[in-house]
Amino acid sequence: MNDFEALVSLNLIPQIGSARLERLLEHFGQPEAIFRASRQSLTAVVGEQLGQSILDFDTGKLKADLALAQKSGIKVLTLLDQEYPAALRQIPGPPMVLYCLGQITPADNLAVGIVGSRQASFYGLNNAQNFAAQLAARGITVVSGMARGVDTFAHRGALKAKGRTLAVIGSGFKHIYPQENADLAEEIAACGAVISEFPMEVKPLPQNFPRRNRLISGLSLGVLITEAARNSGALITADFALEQGKEVFALPGRIDSAGSLGTNALLKQGAKLVTCCEDILEELNLVDAGGKDIEPPPENKIPADRQERELYGHIGDQPVAIDELVQKSSLASSRVLNLLLKLQFKKLIRILPGKQYMRN
Fold first, then answer.
1. Which residue, 50, 114, 72, is CA-closest to 251?
2. What whole-number distance in Å separates Cα of residue 165 and Cα of residue 219?
3. Which residues lie closer than 8 Å to 173 by C-beta, 6 or more apart?
4. 220 in helix, strand or coil?
5. CATH number for region 306-359
6. What CATH code would you report for 3-57?
7. What is the pTM of this model?
8. Of 286, 310, 300, 122, nearest in space to 220 by CA
9. Residue intervals in the chain for CATH 1.10.150
10. What Å distances lie between residue 124 and 142, 275, 304, CA to CA?
11. Does domain 102-283 have CATH number 3.40.50.10540?
12. 213-255: per-residue pLDDT in tens?
Protein backbone atom coordinates (compact mmCIF):
# COMPACT_ATOMS: atom_id res chain seq x y z
CA MET A 1 0.00 0.00 0.00
CA ASN A 2 1.45 3.38 -0.99
CA ASP A 3 0.77 6.77 0.65
CA PHE A 4 -2.05 7.66 -1.78
CA GLU A 5 -3.87 4.38 -1.10
CA ALA A 6 -3.27 4.75 2.64
CA LEU A 7 -4.89 8.21 2.76
CA VAL A 8 -7.90 7.07 0.74
CA SER A 9 -8.21 4.03 3.03
CA LEU A 10 -8.06 6.18 6.16
CA ASN A 11 -10.74 8.42 4.66
CA LEU A 12 -12.92 5.32 4.25
CA ILE A 13 -12.81 4.72 8.03
CA PRO A 14 -15.60 7.00 9.35
CA GLN A 15 -14.05 7.67 12.76
CA ILE A 16 -10.85 9.13 11.30
CA GLY A 17 -10.97 12.84 10.65
CA SER A 18 -8.33 15.49 10.15
CA ALA A 19 -7.41 15.76 13.83
CA ARG A 20 -6.83 12.02 14.25
CA LEU A 21 -4.96 11.84 10.96
CA GLU A 22 -2.65 14.59 12.18
CA ARG A 23 -1.92 12.64 15.37
CA LEU A 24 -1.26 9.48 13.39
CA LEU A 25 1.09 11.22 10.99
CA GLU A 26 2.97 12.91 13.83
CA HIS A 27 3.60 9.48 15.35
CA PHE A 28 4.16 7.30 12.27
CA GLY A 29 5.52 9.80 9.76
CA GLN A 30 4.03 8.48 6.50
CA PRO A 31 0.42 7.40 5.75
CA GLU A 32 1.43 3.93 4.57
CA ALA A 33 3.35 3.37 7.83
CA ILE A 34 0.07 3.62 9.75
CA PHE A 35 -1.15 0.36 8.18
CA ARG A 36 2.13 -1.39 9.03
CA ALA A 37 1.98 -0.33 12.67
CA SER A 38 1.46 -2.75 15.54
CA ARG A 39 -1.73 -2.97 17.56
CA GLN A 40 0.11 -1.59 20.58
CA SER A 41 1.39 1.45 18.69
CA LEU A 42 -2.00 2.25 17.14
CA THR A 43 -3.81 1.85 20.46
CA ALA A 44 -1.39 4.27 22.10
CA VAL A 45 -2.22 6.95 19.52
CA VAL A 46 -5.94 6.56 18.72
CA GLY A 47 -7.32 4.09 21.27
CA GLU A 48 -8.17 0.43 21.09
CA GLN A 49 -11.39 0.60 19.06
CA LEU A 50 -10.07 2.84 16.29
CA GLY A 51 -6.73 1.05 16.28
CA GLN A 52 -8.57 -2.21 15.66
CA SER A 53 -10.56 -0.58 12.83
CA ILE A 54 -7.29 0.31 11.10
CA LEU A 55 -5.89 -3.19 11.60
CA ASP A 56 -9.11 -4.77 10.29
CA PHE A 57 -9.47 -2.46 7.29
CA ASP A 58 -10.66 -4.37 4.23
CA THR A 59 -8.59 -3.33 1.20
CA GLY A 60 -11.49 -4.52 -0.94
CA LYS A 61 -13.30 -1.31 0.10
CA LEU A 62 -10.39 0.74 -1.22
CA LYS A 63 -10.43 -1.08 -4.57
CA ALA A 64 -14.20 -0.71 -4.87
CA ASP A 65 -14.13 3.01 -4.06
CA LEU A 66 -11.33 3.78 -6.52
CA ALA A 67 -12.91 1.62 -9.23
CA LEU A 68 -16.25 3.41 -8.83
CA ALA A 69 -14.52 6.78 -8.95
CA GLN A 70 -12.66 5.84 -12.13
CA LYS A 71 -15.85 4.54 -13.74
CA SER A 72 -17.66 7.78 -12.89
CA GLY A 73 -14.87 10.02 -14.19
CA ILE A 74 -14.02 11.24 -10.69
CA LYS A 75 -10.46 12.29 -9.91
CA VAL A 76 -9.24 11.46 -6.40
CA LEU A 77 -6.81 13.93 -4.81
CA THR A 78 -5.03 13.70 -1.47
CA LEU A 79 -3.21 16.23 0.68
CA LEU A 80 0.02 14.95 -0.85
CA ASP A 81 -0.99 15.84 -4.42
CA GLN A 82 0.26 19.01 -6.08
CA GLU A 83 -3.20 19.60 -7.59
CA TYR A 84 -4.83 19.71 -4.15
CA PRO A 85 -6.33 23.24 -3.72
CA ALA A 86 -3.83 25.50 -1.97
CA ALA A 87 -6.62 27.39 -0.19
CA LEU A 88 -7.81 24.24 1.58
CA ARG A 89 -4.32 23.45 2.86
CA GLN A 90 -4.54 26.65 4.93
CA ILE A 91 -7.75 25.89 6.83
CA PRO A 92 -7.92 24.08 10.19
CA GLY A 93 -8.58 20.39 9.56
CA PRO A 94 -8.19 20.22 5.77
CA PRO A 95 -9.80 17.14 4.19
CA MET A 96 -7.30 14.34 3.62
CA VAL A 97 -9.01 13.30 0.36
CA LEU A 98 -11.03 15.14 -2.28
CA TYR A 99 -13.17 13.54 -4.98
CA CYS A 100 -13.43 15.87 -7.96
CA LEU A 101 -15.62 15.85 -11.05
CA GLY A 102 -14.25 18.47 -13.43
CA GLN A 103 -11.11 20.47 -12.86
CA ILE A 104 -9.81 22.88 -10.22
CA THR A 105 -7.49 25.46 -11.79
CA PRO A 106 -5.30 28.35 -10.56
CA ALA A 107 -8.11 30.69 -11.64
CA ASP A 108 -10.10 29.35 -8.69
CA ASN A 109 -7.73 31.09 -6.28
CA LEU A 110 -9.98 34.11 -6.88
CA ALA A 111 -13.24 32.77 -5.50
CA VAL A 112 -16.26 34.04 -3.58
CA GLY A 113 -18.79 31.79 -1.88
CA ILE A 114 -22.51 32.47 -2.20
CA VAL A 115 -24.88 30.64 0.14
CA GLY A 116 -28.33 31.07 1.63
CA SER A 117 -31.63 29.48 2.45
CA ARG A 118 -32.99 26.41 0.68
CA GLN A 119 -36.44 28.03 0.90
CA ALA A 120 -35.44 31.51 -0.13
CA SER A 121 -37.79 34.15 -1.46
CA PHE A 122 -37.59 35.61 -4.95
CA TYR A 123 -35.45 38.39 -3.45
CA GLY A 124 -32.83 35.95 -2.14
CA LEU A 125 -32.83 33.74 -5.24
CA ASN A 126 -32.73 36.61 -7.73
CA ASN A 127 -29.87 38.34 -5.93
CA ALA A 128 -27.91 35.10 -5.61
CA GLN A 129 -28.13 34.61 -9.36
CA ASN A 130 -27.35 38.24 -10.20
CA PHE A 131 -24.36 38.54 -7.86
CA ALA A 132 -22.99 35.21 -9.10
CA ALA A 133 -23.34 36.27 -12.73
CA GLN A 134 -21.63 39.62 -12.11
CA LEU A 135 -18.77 38.05 -10.14
CA ALA A 136 -18.27 35.31 -12.73
CA ALA A 137 -18.26 37.87 -15.55
CA ARG A 138 -15.36 39.60 -13.78
CA GLY A 139 -13.31 36.40 -13.59
CA ILE A 140 -14.24 35.42 -10.03
CA THR A 141 -15.07 31.76 -9.38
CA VAL A 142 -18.39 31.27 -7.57
CA VAL A 143 -18.38 28.61 -4.85
CA SER A 144 -21.56 27.13 -3.38
CA GLY A 145 -23.07 23.88 -2.11
CA MET A 146 -25.45 22.82 -4.93
CA ALA A 147 -28.35 22.66 -2.46
CA ARG A 148 -31.87 23.71 -3.39
CA GLY A 149 -32.63 27.41 -3.29
CA VAL A 150 -29.87 30.00 -3.14
CA ASP A 151 -27.04 27.56 -3.92
CA THR A 152 -28.66 26.36 -7.13
CA PHE A 153 -29.35 29.92 -8.31
CA ALA A 154 -25.77 30.97 -7.52
CA HIS A 155 -24.38 28.18 -9.70
CA ARG A 156 -26.89 28.99 -12.43
CA GLY A 157 -25.86 32.64 -12.38
CA ALA A 158 -22.19 31.79 -12.86
CA LEU A 159 -23.02 29.36 -15.67
CA LYS A 160 -25.23 31.96 -17.34
CA ALA A 161 -22.27 34.36 -17.39
CA LYS A 162 -20.08 31.60 -18.83
CA GLY A 163 -17.82 31.80 -15.77
CA ARG A 164 -16.32 29.25 -13.41
CA THR A 165 -18.14 27.74 -10.46
CA LEU A 166 -17.28 25.12 -7.84
CA ALA A 167 -19.90 23.03 -6.03
CA VAL A 168 -19.07 21.33 -2.73
CA ILE A 169 -21.47 18.49 -1.93
CA GLY A 170 -22.25 16.75 1.35
CA SER A 171 -22.37 13.19 0.03
CA GLY A 172 -20.47 10.76 -2.15
CA PHE A 173 -20.87 11.03 -5.91
CA LYS A 174 -23.02 7.88 -6.03
CA HIS A 175 -25.71 9.84 -4.12
CA ILE A 176 -25.84 13.33 -5.65
CA TYR A 177 -28.12 15.46 -3.48
CA PRO A 178 -30.60 16.82 -4.24
CA GLN A 179 -31.24 14.31 -6.99
CA GLU A 180 -32.82 16.89 -9.28
CA ASN A 181 -29.45 18.66 -9.44
CA ALA A 182 -27.66 15.73 -11.09
CA ASP A 183 -27.80 17.50 -14.46
CA LEU A 184 -26.59 20.72 -12.83
CA ALA A 185 -23.58 18.82 -11.48
CA GLU A 186 -22.63 17.84 -15.03
CA GLU A 187 -22.97 21.45 -16.21
CA ILE A 188 -20.79 22.68 -13.35
CA ALA A 189 -18.12 20.06 -14.03
CA ALA A 190 -17.90 21.19 -17.64
CA CYS A 191 -16.67 24.66 -16.63
CA GLY A 192 -15.54 24.16 -13.04
CA ALA A 193 -15.72 21.29 -10.59
CA VAL A 194 -17.97 19.40 -8.21
CA ILE A 195 -16.06 18.45 -5.06
CA SER A 196 -16.65 16.11 -2.14
CA GLU A 197 -14.51 14.89 0.74
CA PHE A 198 -16.77 11.87 1.20
CA PRO A 199 -16.13 8.41 -0.31
CA MET A 200 -18.17 7.51 -3.38
CA GLU A 201 -21.00 5.64 -1.65
CA VAL A 202 -21.59 7.93 1.36
CA LYS A 203 -25.22 9.08 1.57
CA PRO A 204 -26.25 12.72 2.19
CA LEU A 205 -26.51 12.45 5.98
CA PRO A 206 -27.36 15.59 8.02
CA GLN A 207 -24.01 15.58 9.84
CA ASN A 208 -22.16 15.82 6.52
CA PHE A 209 -23.36 19.31 5.62
CA PRO A 210 -21.55 21.37 8.28
CA ARG A 211 -18.34 19.66 7.10
CA ARG A 212 -19.28 20.59 3.55
CA ASN A 213 -19.82 24.23 4.62
CA ARG A 214 -16.26 24.60 5.93
CA LEU A 215 -14.96 23.72 2.47
CA ILE A 216 -17.18 26.32 0.79
CA SER A 217 -15.67 29.04 2.96
CA GLY A 218 -12.23 27.43 2.79
CA LEU A 219 -12.14 27.67 -1.01
CA SER A 220 -13.32 31.30 -0.95
CA LEU A 221 -11.76 34.67 -0.18
CA GLY A 222 -15.09 35.70 1.29
CA VAL A 223 -18.65 34.43 1.60
CA LEU A 224 -21.87 36.25 0.67
CA ILE A 225 -25.08 35.24 2.45
CA THR A 226 -28.00 36.50 0.38
CA GLU A 227 -30.87 35.36 2.60
CA ALA A 228 -30.98 33.25 5.74
CA ALA A 229 -33.37 32.64 8.60
CA ARG A 230 -32.19 32.78 12.19
CA ASN A 231 -31.17 29.09 12.32
CA SER A 232 -30.19 28.67 8.68
CA GLY A 233 -27.33 26.34 7.82
CA ALA A 234 -25.86 29.20 5.76
CA LEU A 235 -24.90 30.86 9.05
CA ILE A 236 -22.66 27.87 9.79
CA THR A 237 -20.72 28.78 6.65
CA ALA A 238 -20.38 32.34 7.98
CA ASP A 239 -19.02 30.96 11.27
CA PHE A 240 -16.45 28.84 9.42
CA ALA A 241 -15.46 31.84 7.30
CA LEU A 242 -14.73 33.83 10.45
CA GLU A 243 -12.69 31.00 11.96
CA GLN A 244 -10.69 30.79 8.73
CA GLY A 245 -10.08 34.53 8.60
CA LYS A 246 -12.30 35.08 5.56
CA GLU A 247 -14.60 38.02 4.83
CA VAL A 248 -18.34 37.72 5.50
CA PHE A 249 -20.81 39.69 3.38
CA ALA A 250 -24.58 39.90 3.76
CA LEU A 251 -27.50 41.44 1.90
CA PRO A 252 -29.90 43.50 4.03
CA GLY A 253 -33.44 42.14 4.16
CA ARG A 254 -36.88 43.25 5.32
CA ILE A 255 -37.10 43.52 9.10
CA ASP A 256 -40.47 41.74 9.08
CA SER A 257 -39.23 38.79 6.99
CA ALA A 258 -38.32 35.62 8.89
CA GLY A 259 -36.05 34.68 6.00
CA SER A 260 -33.88 37.73 6.61
CA LEU A 261 -33.43 37.43 10.37
CA GLY A 262 -30.12 35.61 9.96
CA THR A 263 -28.58 38.02 7.46
CA ASN A 264 -29.77 41.08 9.39
CA ALA A 265 -28.25 39.61 12.55
CA LEU A 266 -24.93 39.15 10.75
CA LEU A 267 -25.01 42.80 9.70
CA LYS A 268 -25.64 43.91 13.29
CA GLN A 269 -22.64 41.84 14.36
CA GLY A 270 -20.34 43.47 11.83
CA ALA A 271 -20.68 41.62 8.54
CA LYS A 272 -20.03 43.77 5.48
CA LEU A 273 -23.28 45.11 4.03
CA VAL A 274 -23.33 44.84 0.26
CA THR A 275 -25.76 46.27 -2.26
CA CYS A 276 -23.78 45.62 -5.43
CA CYS A 277 -21.00 43.43 -6.76
CA GLU A 278 -18.47 46.26 -6.50
CA ASP A 279 -18.86 46.30 -2.71
CA ILE A 280 -17.44 42.76 -2.58
CA LEU A 281 -14.67 43.41 -5.09
CA GLU A 282 -13.53 46.57 -3.31
CA GLU A 283 -13.47 44.88 0.08
CA LEU A 284 -11.36 42.03 -1.33
CA ASN A 285 -9.15 44.38 -3.39
CA LEU A 286 -10.37 42.68 -6.56
CA VAL A 287 -11.77 45.66 -8.41
CA ASP A 288 -9.57 44.76 -11.37
CA ALA A 289 -9.51 41.06 -10.58
CA GLY A 290 -9.45 39.71 -14.12
CA GLY A 291 -6.09 37.99 -14.37
CA LYS A 292 -4.35 40.30 -11.89
CA ASP A 293 -2.66 39.39 -8.63
CA ILE A 294 -4.56 39.76 -5.41
CA GLU A 295 -3.43 42.84 -3.54
CA PRO A 296 -2.85 42.50 0.20
CA PRO A 297 -5.72 43.80 2.31
CA PRO A 298 -5.22 47.17 4.00
CA GLU A 299 -4.16 47.12 7.64
CA ASN A 300 -7.06 47.04 10.05
CA LYS A 301 -7.60 50.14 12.13
CA ILE A 302 -7.96 50.19 15.89
CA PRO A 303 -11.68 49.93 16.81
CA ALA A 304 -13.47 53.24 17.34
CA ASP A 305 -15.96 51.81 19.85
CA ARG A 306 -14.62 52.24 23.42
CA GLN A 307 -15.51 48.76 24.70
CA GLU A 308 -14.21 47.11 21.52
CA ARG A 309 -10.98 49.08 21.87
CA GLU A 310 -10.55 48.13 25.53
CA LEU A 311 -11.21 44.43 24.88
CA TYR A 312 -8.84 44.51 21.91
CA GLY A 313 -6.20 45.88 24.27
CA HIS A 314 -6.47 42.71 26.37
CA ILE A 315 -5.78 40.49 23.35
CA GLY A 316 -2.20 40.12 22.21
CA ASP A 317 0.05 37.83 20.20
CA GLN A 318 -0.43 34.97 22.64
CA PRO A 319 -3.73 33.02 22.94
CA VAL A 320 -6.07 34.19 25.68
CA ALA A 321 -9.18 32.37 26.92
CA ILE A 322 -12.59 34.00 27.08
CA ASP A 323 -12.80 33.58 30.87
CA GLU A 324 -9.65 35.64 31.25
CA LEU A 325 -11.06 38.32 28.95
CA VAL A 326 -14.26 38.49 31.02
CA GLN A 327 -12.17 38.91 34.16
CA LYS A 328 -9.86 41.57 32.70
CA SER A 329 -12.62 43.59 31.04
CA SER A 330 -15.15 43.40 33.92
CA LEU A 331 -17.85 42.94 31.28
CA ALA A 332 -20.60 40.32 31.20
CA SER A 333 -19.64 37.19 29.29
CA SER A 334 -22.46 37.75 26.80
CA ARG A 335 -21.13 41.25 26.06
CA VAL A 336 -17.58 39.93 25.67
CA LEU A 337 -18.81 37.30 23.20
CA ASN A 338 -20.60 39.97 21.18
CA LEU A 339 -17.52 42.20 21.09
CA LEU A 340 -15.28 39.29 20.13
CA LEU A 341 -17.57 38.51 17.22
CA LYS A 342 -17.34 42.11 16.00
CA LEU A 343 -13.55 42.06 16.25
CA GLN A 344 -13.52 38.80 14.25
CA PHE A 345 -15.69 40.34 11.56
CA LYS A 346 -13.20 43.20 11.32
CA LYS A 347 -10.39 40.61 11.03
CA LEU A 348 -8.58 42.15 13.99
CA ILE A 349 -8.52 38.88 15.92
CA ARG A 350 -8.87 35.19 15.20
CA ILE A 351 -10.28 32.29 17.17
CA LEU A 352 -8.14 29.29 18.02
CA PRO A 353 -9.08 25.76 19.13
CA GLY A 354 -10.40 25.72 22.69
CA LYS A 355 -12.18 29.09 22.27
CA GLN A 356 -8.99 31.11 22.67
CA TYR A 357 -8.29 34.37 20.88
CA MET A 358 -5.26 36.25 19.57
CA ARG A 359 -4.59 39.19 17.27
CA ASN A 360 -4.28 38.67 13.54
1. 114
2. 11
3. 69, 72, 74, 99, 101, 194, 196, 200
4. coil
5. 1.10.10.10
6. 1.10.150
7. 0.81
8. 286
9. 3-57
10. 16, 13, 32
11. no
12. 999 999 999 999 999 988 888 999 999 999 999 999 999 998 8
